[in-house]
Amino acid sequence: MKLEVLEDAKRLGIAAARLGTEAIRKALAERGQANIIVATGASQFETLSALIAEPDIDWTRVTGFHLDEYLGLDDQHPASFCRYLRERFVAHVPLKQFHYVDGTDKDPHQVCRELGELIQSHPIDVAFVGIGENGHLAFNDPPADFETTEPYLVVDLDEACRKQQAGEGWFATIDDVPTQAISMSCRQILKSNTIICSVPDRRKAEAVQGSLEGPVTPDVPASILQTHEGTTLFVDKAAATLLTSSTLSD
């Protein structure tokens, strides 16, 4: 895993988007099509804003996959990730197709199976992801399942994750945050050729330190990115606050 430290969230987003679009353009040139994974949340604001502004991408040959979604949340809810992606990404680029995670289906396990079959026939060129305050990757909260090869899972959300969602203003109180979600698995994310991980904000400093400098452990789910040579972790100076000088000088 490589590390890039930028001055602020805006510069972080521009740098992350540029590296991601390089990989998209490479896939389009080599295979005539590209497949990407797109994340949500406050950490992705600047990256997605910069991504849709990148020139010279034939989005009509790009297929997108949704990373995760709450169970039981209508796609008109302010915290819906379907709504987030529709408004912040999908509406701005003429994608070939975008596969949303439907968290309102009565059988979420069937949703996982169907999405799993789809993504297995679409090798991922670039995954745009983030890291939660609790170190989660997608909605794989600690201790994460590092063993399953299922592409999508129904997962329980821990208290720290739910507090973060309320703290960022997506929900009025923690009691309003759903307790379960559908999430892409850690192993499925690692199948991506390139992983662009955007993590701004001082709130994420401890998670960044654990993910980058600590051991690879399910207790810090994003630490598994250390095992993926094609991962670049983009952080701003605030998120890099707890990193050691030796890490920053590498």
Key words describing this protein structure:
alpha/beta; 7-stranded parallel β-sheet; 3-stranded antiparallel β-sheet
Q: If helices are DSSP runs of H or I spanning 4 or more residues, what is the number of helices?
A: 8
Radius of gyration: 17 Å
What is the SS-derived class? alpha/beta
Shape: globular
What's the architecture in CATH terms? 3-Layer(aba) Sandwich
Low confidence ranges: none
- CATH topology group: Rossmann fold
Word description of this protein:
By secondary structure, the protein is an alpha/beta fold. The chain has one domain (2-249): Rossmann fold. The protein has helices at 9-31, 45-53, 81-88, 108-120, 159-167, 186-190, 205-213, 245-249; strands spanning 2-6, 34-38, 62-66, 68-70, 97-99, 126-129, 152-156, 180-184, 194-199, 231-236. The strands form two sheets. It has a seven-stranded parallel β-sheet with strand order 1-10-9-6-2-3-5, covered by helices on one side. A three-stranded antiparallel β-sheet has the order 4-8-7. Helix 1 (9-31) crosses helix 2 (45-53). The model has no long low-confidence stretch (mean pLDDT 96).
